[in-house]
Amino acid sequence: MSESDGKPGHKLSPADSRAVMLAFFRALGADARLPASAEQPDAYSALVRAILSSVAVSTSPAPRVSCTITVSHAVTNLYNTLHGGAVAAVAEAVGMACARAAAGDREMFLGELSTAYLVAARCNVIFF
Question: FRET pair for 8, CA 20 to 30 Å: which of 1, 79, 87, 127?
């Protein structure tokens, strides 16, 4: 890498910039192989179900879906709080459960999901 690395006002060359970015992704483990269980067709659903501590669906008198999430280290970010992607994945799963509870078990998809974060959920804390 060049001598200007990290100095204010100096730009990295494209090759140096690429090397820094690759080192960053490798440090995160981006080049690690996924376990065989991640290659299964329903791996994403199993991952989201593992985040949920409990889910309850009732249909009388009106459809209702509730869930509990326990924030474990498996779904935390560098700040030791619940990862935003995990929040969105759970919101999508619960949203689909609500739609199916109201409309029946039909084929459907969630067209768009927007998530706003108000406060961080700390590790080993249960939220309802």
Answer: 79
* Model confidence, pTM: 0.61
β-pair type (52-58, 64-70): antiparallel
Per-domain residue ranges for the chain?
36-127
Contact between residue 86 and residue 49 where contact means Cβ atoms under 8 Å apart: no
Amino acid at 29: G
Report how far apart, in Å, the C-alpha atoms of 117 and of each of 27, 29, 65, 103, 123 are: 27, 26, 21, 28, 16
Binned at pLDDT 50, 70 and 90, residue 7 comes out as low
Q: Which fold has domain 36-127?
A: Thiol Ester Dehydrase; Chain A (3.10.129)
Chain center to CA of 1: 34
